[in-house]
Amino acid sequence: MIRSMTAFARCEHRGDWGHLTWELRSVNHRYLEVFARLPEALRALEPQVRESAAKRLGRGKVEFNLRFQPAASAVGHLSLNQDLARDVLRMATEVEALIGLSHSLSPMDVLTWPGVAEQPEPDLAPVREQALVALGEALDDFVATREREGEQIHHMITQRCSALSILVVQARARRPELMARLREKLEGRLRDLPLDADPGRLEQEMVIVAQRLDVDEELDRLDAHLAELSKVLGRPEPVGRRLDFLMQELNREANTLSSKSADTESTRIAVDMKVLIEQMREQVQNVE
């Protein structure tokens, strides 16, 4: 199955506890790399985020951004730790007596002492539970987006494969005509020589030329790579790395054809092949 590595998804959940928003976005990457940006109160969810990403995604640099806005009703009221406040005032009085200075503490001075003004910790269990539910929904949408984009890439690659197969047929069909033209050209040169030409020598030269221009193996490998490409496109698992390897192999064979071309038409066919392969390669870079 073809899936794109670039995608974006957003999911929101609201409740009595507040408002959660997940945003997922990814770009191309050779491997799976996860970045989780979570509020401090929900930092404990990071291992589960990474585990979910590993189960659902194959490659890409993926950002998981979670925003949490607690409801006003869920925020506990401040309370005064009277015992601690008394201790702070008592110690301040003792310090003043020691240094012989008098400096009365203001109420705000006391309240800013750590622990004097207390706020109860909110119950985050429901928030964590809903955050994981929302994460699952966001991942569903995220993967669906990747698959939709992957379908377009699949269609594009299939079209280019069909066009490339036609060029292979054209290149193979030109072989007899090309060799006949080379023989005719060589015979014409021999006739122009003032000396009698040795027919055996002509055949030897034709064998040498045929070996130098032989591209049957390259064409056969192109056919084999295209057949493998069709199989890979139908696999259910991520196939990006396999497709990238096949693009390298296709390009190698097309370059060899270009170097062995002996006429303008053969050169055009080889160039057209490389154009199609490069178009596929650019798209394959975005495949998971």
Please give the structural blueprint:
Elements lengths: L6 E9 L2 E10 L4 E6 L8 H11 L3 E11 L8 E2 L1 H18 L7 H5 L5 E2 L6 H68 L6 H15 L2 H18 L6 H21 L3 H21 L4
Parallel strand pairs: 3-4
Antiparallel strand pairs: 1-2, 2-4, 5-6
Helix pairs in contact: 1-4, 4-5, 4-6, 4-8, 6-7, 7-8
Task: Provide structural commentary.
By secondary structure, the protein is of the alpha+beta class. Among the domains are: 79-118, no CATH class; 148-284, no CATH class. It has 8 helices and 6 strands. The protein has helices at residues 46-56, 82-99, 107-111, 125-192, 199-213, 216-233, 240-260, 264-284, and strands at residues 7-15, 18-27, 32-37, 60-70, 79-80, 117-118. The chain has a 4-stranded mixed sheet, with helices on one face. A two-stranded antiparallel ribbon has the order 5-6. β1 and β2 form a beta hairpin. α1 (46-56) packs parallel to α4, α4 (125-192) packs antiparallel against α6 (216-233) and α6 (216-233) runs antiparallel to α7. The longest helix has 68 residues, at 125-192.
Helical coverage, percent range: 55-70%
| Backbone CA Rg | 36 Å
Count of DSSP-assigned helices: 8
Mean pLDDT: 84
Order of helices and strands: EEEHEEHHEHHHHH
The coarse overall form would be rod-shaped
Coarse structural class? alpha+beta
Largest sheet: 4 strands, mixed
Q: What is the oligomer described by this structure?
A: single chain
**Unreliable segments of 5+ consecutive residues:** none
Strand order of the largest sheet: 1-2-4-3
Content of β-strand: 5-15%
Instruction: Compute the number of strand runs.
Output: 6
Distance between the termini: 9 Å
